[in-house]
Write a structure and sequence with these properties.
With 427 residues, the protein is α+β, with helices and mostly antiparallel strands. Helices cover 67% and strands 7% of the residues.
């Protein structure tokens, strides 16, 4: 009687812990539940091969009657509450994990083992015995899990409203099949007597009844007590996850959806900060404003999909050629800008490199693409982003007016002076 009560207590404890982990899967992830299920797999095989207690109806192992039966019911719960794609993950994980263990044991046997100072050496025979039992038990589990799901589904045609009977019959039938299969291997490997089979079968039938009652009670209770949404950060791992998602969001905000470059709003924020830093430190800062030549004709001739491809290709060239300290933006439909911490001559050379790279990347039979660019550098007369952009944009206009596919970084005769530009901005 004492052993029977202990087995019942073990079943209640196992079910309570595992179902709690399963219930919290939306908060902590179902991986916690699956890992706990897998960790118990080794213990149940070890107990099934070596640990037995006497009951009035025979000799019983808690590994088979409590842990294995409980695991099978847990897999059925995963199928009922999730789907087949989810329940197959722990099943295949256990199968492949145990196959890997046997493979590694075969390699470990090739070592020349050095005994510890105390003379203790590993019991390789025990590892072999346990390993093959685990592989056989996992193979049976693979079949058992499929059978219990198929049987549960088939019984649904006749017992759809009798959930307890449906779960009990499915569990009892599959555990009977499993007891025959596992005892066969256990008898040949460990010499287990017949009373182990009958005692184990009786215990598994009792486990099927007990677990079925608890599972039905949990399903009905959970149905009227849904778990509330998490209100805050639970532990350090959730804190790290929150920080990672926040940082990813920060990186995403301000990005252009088509090209992945920073967009106009970020350009305006960064530009004012960079100019202020340049004026304070005396370090050079240049702005390159870029526009795609005849972009409307690209869309008209080849379609908007080809136009989008051209913009993505140009964005890629800009990102590849710009340095790590340069900031690249898409400021309009076919307009780009680069803030670079370079003196004017070096910034102009960067603009020429970009122009040549974009021109070389196009193909005449599909879509030949060229760009024009204007360059301006921070100085006493360009002490704001608006002034700097106006000067660079004026030089971009000069590049287009003089034939396109060129970079203009010096004032032309037709270009107004900075005072005129500032006055124009004021209006």
């Amino acid at each position: 009687m004492y052993n029977s009560l202990l087995l019942l207590l073990e079943a209640v404890a196992y079910f309570g812990v595992m179902v709690t982990l399963f219930r919290l899967r939306r908060r902590i992830g179902i991986g916690v539940f699956v890992c706990a299920l897998g960790a118990m797999h080794f213990l149940e095989t070890y107990l099934a091969s070596t640990f037995y207690v006497a009951l009035p109806f025979g000799i019983v192992s808690p590994g088979s009657s409590v842990l294995f039966s409980g695991k099978l019911v847990m897999l059925l719960l995963v199928y009922m509450k999730e789907d087949a794609a989810t329940v197959r993950q722990p099943i295949y994980g256990l199968l492949f994990g145990n196959a890997l263990m046997i493979g590694l044991v075969l390699l470990l046997r090739q070592h020349d083992i050095a005994p510890l100072p105390s003379g203790l050496q590993p019991d390789i025979a025990f590892i072999d015995q346990m390993g093959w039992l685990m592989v056989w038990g996992t193979a049976l589990l693979f079949v058992d899990a499929i059978l219990i799901i198929l049987l549960y589904e088939r019984l649904g045609k006749y017992l759809r409203k009798a959930l307890f009977a449906r779960i009990l019959i499915s569990t009892a039938c599959v555990l009977t099949f499993d007891q025959v299969g596992f005892f066969t291997a256990l008898h040949f490997i460990t010499g287990a007597p017949a009373e182990v089979f009958f005692g184990g079968w009786y215990a598994k039938m009792a486990a099927a009844f007990t677990y079925s009652m608890m599972l039905v009670a949990y399903i009905r209770w959970a149905g009227i007590h849904p778990i509330p949404a998490p209100r805050g950060l639970g532990d350090i791992f959730e804190t790290l996850t929150y920080r990672e998602r926040y940082e990813a969001l920060v990186q995403h905000v301000g990005r252009d959806g088509l090209t992945g470059l920073w967009h106009r709003g970020r350009f305006e924020t960064d530009g004012e900060q960079e100019i202020a830093a340049s004026l304070a430190s005396g370090k050079p800062l240049s702005l390159i404003v870029i526009d795609v030549d005849h972009f409307k004709s690209i869309n008209d001739r080849f379609g908007h999909a080809e136009g989008d491809r051209a913009l993505r290709s140009i964005a890629t060239r800009l990102h590849e050629i710009a340095g790590p300290d340069d900031h690249v933006y898409r400021t309009g439909g076919e307009e780009f800008a680069i803030l670079c911490r370079r003196p004017h001559p070096v910034a102009r050379l960067l603009g020429e490199n970009i122009r040549l790279a974009v021109k070389a990347s196009g193909t005449a039979d599909v879509c030949a693409v060229t760009i024009s660019a204007g360059i301006a550098t921070v100085s006493g007369s360009t002490a704001s982003l608006a002034e700097l952009f106006a000067l660079a944009d004026q030089r971009l206009y000069t590049a287009k007016a003089s034939g396109r596919d060129r970079v203009v970084g010096e004032p032309s005769l037709a270009e107004p002076d900075q005072a005129q530009l500032s006055a124009g901005q004021a209006h």
